[in-house]
Design goal:
By secondary structure, the protein is of the alpha/beta class. The strands form four sheets. Strands 3, 4, 5, 6, 7, 8, 9, 12, 13 and 14 form a ten-stranded mixed β-sheet that branches. A two-stranded antiparallel ribbon has the order 1-2. A hairpin with a 4-residue loop joins strand 10 and strand 11. The chain is globular, with a radius of gyration of 25 Å. This is Glycosyltransferase family 92 protein. Belongs to the glycosyltransferase 92 family. Its EC number is 2.4.1.-. It is a single-pass membrane protein.
Length: 345
């Protein structure tokens, strides 16, 4: 699997690739116009591919709402494999126009971090002329600004700067993400930025960047390794901003030996540097409840015309219940629980 850059051709509507001049080309896909005179988005995020057994629904909401609060308005997501429950939150952000989703079909049964470079370079090409600046971040990484806004930082850069690099602070993530939504208290308790605060020093090891797509020739995992002539990188002081990396401590995770690495030391409980914590909690909770907080349909809510059909066809068609039915079910459940407790005693 490769990312192929094809030269433009006037009048072309579809594109395909083949392994040789005489090989049968793959199924063609329609071209999408991206050559805008000026980028549609000021700051976007190229989000690393999602993989592993964890359900990422809460992490996705927290990630997107965090970056929205520092000025990001567009997100490029790439999916190789995703469970149906997590896909609900992804579909919602796609519906609102905040997420552009690329789904990559593969012949391989398992797709892991080795496909990360495919996502990075595909997103780089996708963002050209579409976003002015792109933050290169994984789903467990949050950029925090300490001295001024991200927009202020960008405005201070010279035209020759095509890449801005930030240091990283590793934060120990010791538990798995929740499987499903239960209640508001669970969400407030399980948000990553409130649950974990044992971190190492801020270091330049594995630094991450934001970059100008049209001024960058090729990307590596964390930064560009080929820039077009005349462009350079800037390195931002740790007192201005850095990435929080909520890295799993699982012994089976990618790079699981990082806790013993010499660069990550002096672990201690530290104050949360996120200055908009209350607003972030509210935004994440609101989005999660909108997508996952489901209740039954009461028959009393049906419009009159539909209710007449209900009378004819019954519960099986509309899957509704009368409020009195629900109250009776709840009362019987409570009585059963009480009787069970008494018998145990």
């Amino acid at each position: 699997m490769n990312v192929v850059k094809c030269p433009r051709r006037v009048g072309a509507k579809y594109v395909s690739i083949a392994s040789s001049k005489y090989a049968k080309p793959q199924q063609p896909i329609p071209l999408i116009f991206r050559a805008y005179p000026s980028p549609m988005h000021g700051i976007s995020v190229c989000v690393g591919p999602l993989y592993g057994p964890e359900k990422k629904w809460l992490e996705i909401a927290e990630f997107i709402e965090h970056y929205k609060l520092i000025g990001v308005r567009h997100f490029y997501f790439t999916i190789f494999n995703m469970n149906e429950y997590t896909r609900k939150i992804m579909d919602e952000y796609t519906r609102t126009g905040e997420v552009e989703l690329t789904v990559i079909q593969s012949e391989y049964a398992n797709v892991d971090w080795q496909f990360h470079l495919l996502q990075i370079n595909e997103c780089h090409q996708r963002a050209k002329y579409h976003s002015k600046w792109v933050i290169n971040a994984d789903i467990d990484e949050r950029l925090v600004m300490l001295n001024g806004t991200l927009q202020d930082l960008i405005r201070r850069q010279e035209q020759s700067i095509s890449e801005i690099n930030f240091a990283v602070q590793r934060v120990m993530k010791t538990d798995l993400l929740p499987e499903v939504y239960e209640n508001d208290e669970q969400i407030l308790r399980e948000m990553i930025f409130t649950k974990y605060n044992i971190s190492a020093d801020v270091v330049w090891k594995a630094a991450k960047c934001m970059y100008r797509p049209e001024k960058t020739a090729s990307m590596y995992y964390h930064w560009s390794y080929i820039k077009y002539p005349g462009y350079n990188a800037a390195w931002i002081g740790r007192n201005q901003g850095y990435f929080l990396h909520y890295r799993t401590t699982s012994a089976t995770g990618i790079g699981s030996g990082w806790l013993d690495h010499a660069n990550y030391k002096n672990f201690q409980e530290r104050p949360n540097p996120i200055t908009f914590a209350n607003e972030l909690r509210e935004n994440v909770l609101r989005k999660i409840k909108y997508v996952y907080d489901r209740r039954i349909l009461y028959c009393e809510e049906l419009p009159d015309a539909v209710y007449q059909e209900y009378i004819v066809y019954g519960h099986e068609t509309f899957h509704c219940k009368f409020k009195s039915e629900v109250e009776n079910e709840q009362r019987k459940k409570l009585e059963l629980e009480n009787s069970t407790m008494i018998s145990r005693k």
